[in-house]
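Input/output pair, single chain:
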Amino acid sequence: MLWSGLAIPIEDIGIAEEILLNRLPEMTHLCHKKTMGFILNKFVEFWPEEYWFYPKTYLIPEEYE
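Output:
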């Protein structure tokens, strides 16, 4: 398995043609700090007993106060 945050041309990887490459749907939302913080804060809000390890995160400027 090869994990890459950027698009890599097939020619640069050097793999056989019969191998398939794919992306996880909506993965771009998790790659941005602000969006990921928002999503994880929602997880903590709805399931605090499962997400006790996640520190309180503030989204600036919306939660500046």
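The chain has a mean pLDDT of 76. Residues 33-46 form the longest helix (14 residues).
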